[in-house]
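thought: fold this chain, then report.
action: predict
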Amino acid sequence: MSLETEISELWTQYADDEVDAASATTDHLDTLDAFLDALESGEVRAAEKRDEWEANEWVKRAILLNFGLRETHPRTYGDVTYHDVLPLRETSDLGERGTRNTPDGTVIRRGAFIGEDAILMSPAFVNVGAFVGNGTLIDSCDTVGSCAQIGDNVKLGANTLIGGVLEPVESAPVVIEDGVSLGAGCRVTSGFVVGEDSIVGENTLLTPRIPVYDLVEEEVIYGELPPERRAFTRYVDSALGDHDLFEGGAYKPAVVALDVESDTLDATRREEALRE
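observation:
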């Protein structure tokens, strides 16, 4: 029986209230442990790119089962006692694969994949189901949310938040493709996809609710930044601008995207594109 089949059968029992944390058997927990091992080895992933990025629903269900079928236990991290259903990830394999994780606050939760030659600077947090590719830098104070998919040779600037999408299970999580560089303080949330080899300016918010003005293809898009773009935050006129409460006009955030090779941006072209 495949791991996917075992998880699917266990999910059915859980959904039908036939099993819970109090009644979970050793066999159930062994299945969940085998699943977490498969996540950590990269054998399974929460999302994969086919024609486009798609969630692997059974993987996300298995993560939810780890929360629903495990008891909370006191655990230790250094001198700190914490309480969780999952322990932290064992990191003894990282050094032999050329990956560095600095001490004093670098937290990797059980069920996270960490690639070769990666760097995780403290304090940083990588949650269950996350995938961090080869040669990627997770800088100080970065958070990589549950099921987030981070490609190879990605650079996350300090204090960057990569949101997680665990529920609903059919929703694809945040994806940062290969070769992307995110400036310090960026926020990427709600299943947004950052295309490969893009460069994103510091403090940029990327979420499906904020429009991306792509000046390369001359279109406004939502939920993704195409590959090989240089992007940064800009503010545009809001429909609320005529409301009496907003004397002098109101503005809403937007993202401007250029060809990644562009060193400068013509101000007139930018303003015309934002106001069309």
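thought: worth noting. The two ends are 57 Å apart (CA to CA).
final: tokens above.
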